[in-house]
Amino acid sequence: MRLCNTNLAQLPVDIGRPTYDRSSVTPGIVHIGLGNFHRAHQAWYLHRLMQQGEALDWGILGAGVRDADERQRERLAAQDYLYTLIELDPAVQSAEVVGSMIGFIPVEHDNAALIARIADPEIRIVSLTVTEGGYYIDPVTKRFDHGHPDIQHDAANPETPRTAFGAMVAALKRRRAQGVGPFTGQSCDNLQGNGDILRQAVVSLARLSDSTLADWIDDNCSFPNSMVDCIVPATGPKELELVKGFGIDDAAPVTHEVFRQWIIQDDFCAGRPDWDRAGAIFTDDVHSYEMMKIRILNGGHQLISNPGEVLSVGLISECMEHPLIGPFFRKVAGTEIAPCVDAVPGMTPDEYVKLIDRRFSNPEIVDTVRRVAFDGSSRQTGFILPTLRDALAKDGPMEGLALSQALWARMCAGTREDGTEIAPNDPIWGDLVAAANAARNDPLSWLQQRNLYGDLADNTRLGESFIRWFRLIWSNGTEAALAAYLKS
Q: How much is the pLDDT for 366?
């Protein structure tokens, strides 16, 4: 059955579907970067509210600033912006059709349509999932990268910006001029203090062209921090076949694990949906939740994906089944990361490690090592290095964290141990490959990438440990290094 509004009633009886009248839903949110994660997470929470007859004035309009976003728009428009969400429970699989997205703004190089829509007073929240590396952050200083060519373009051409942040700034300028008022900017990316980082990007960019506007944005807009959590694999041929197995012809299905969590700071200048009625948690202490999740889950992904790539392991669940990679995660997460993480209500760090172990091991989640290892220059610096800094400062255990850096360097050499090539998977892949191969003669040169490591490059304890692991990997192999760590 082709997925569209007119066919909803004819879908198989065991498929959940919108019980609300989608024609009565009006927009309240523009979401930029409408990939699988948003559709499995934030859009689902809103859909659950709408199923209760609530939040019908908070419909989502998708948006994007890349050519790939236009292809996504075309796929979703052909099926009335509906999509199938498939829950991958090891015991039983289930599916439901989500209807909280009601449109998708045309993707244009000057972002004119996006700016006009965000400037509309109906829009009260502009949310984003643009990946951890999409906020123009210097990886060492964590400050806004004013010198990036995209940012320089937007500063010089504020009415025709390239970036999502430039579009937000241009729309806010119109709203201020028209007396419409501010909106909430809501980051839903895996960044600690993601709302603060979004504020930094928007205000800093505005200040490059209009300091008065920047002050107005800083004083009037809100940028709540949040922690988002749900493992959502990429959609490929297997997922397209899976949705057909449910009797649905859907060009854009999404699969996800059973677990889902959303922790949100309650700071919305123009109102918000009551997401807590659908299971989200509003709290003033987002930081503790996000530190636990980012360091153990996201950091854990980096621990296992690099050796997995080098050893030609295809899936995250297969990494957990590997006799060395799975135990490597458990030991590093339990003895080196958990001591650097605070407990949250109802969950200790040790309990969370066990939860992540189960989630990573779910064989129904076809999550590729390549997807998880992507953009290590952002993910390693955001998910692993902060814990490494804390461990060094406390003089705590850190051999596994140092080994993780040697494994990343080995992966960045660009070949697996079976001789096959690793395709580029980082925005600065060329620089990383050059540094990884130079390190074969001078291991410490890898840590001298100060754009990534900053003053960690000068830490003698880290340097000595890194050299030992790096040389062992290249002399005896990745499995030998993992085995040596597990015996230590």
A: 86
pTM: 0.83
Range 224-250 average pLDDT? 94
Q: What is the largest CA-CA distance in the chain?
A: 67
* Residues 308/322, Cβ–Cβ less than 8 Å: yes
- CA dist., res. 451 & res. 436, Å (int): 15
Cα–Cα distance for residue pair 134/153, rounded to 1 Å = 16
Rounded distance between C-alpha atoms, residue 155 and residue 203, angstroms: 12
**pLDDT value for 132:** 82
Which residues on adjacent β-strands are paired with residue 368? 315
How confident is the model over 450-471, as pLDDT tens digits? 999 999 999 999 999 999 999 9
Q: End-to-end CA distance of the chain, in Å?
A: 57
CB 464 within 8 A of CB 405: no
Q: What type of residue sits at position 337? A: I
Confidence at residue 140, expressed as pLDDT on a 0 to 100 scale: 76
- Token pair for residue 273? 């949906």
> Where does residue 13 rank: exposed (0-12), middle (13-18), buried (19+ CB within 10 A)?
exposed
Going by C-beta distance under 8 Å and a sequence separation of 6 or more, which residues neighbour residue 157? none
> For 277-300, how does the pLDDT look when each residue is reduced to its tens digit (9 = 90+)?
999 999 999 999 999 999 999 999
**Chain CA centroid to CA 268, Å:** 22
Helix-strand-coil split of the chain, %, nearest 5: 50, 10, 35
CA distances from 388 to 108, 182, 391 (A): 42, 39, 5
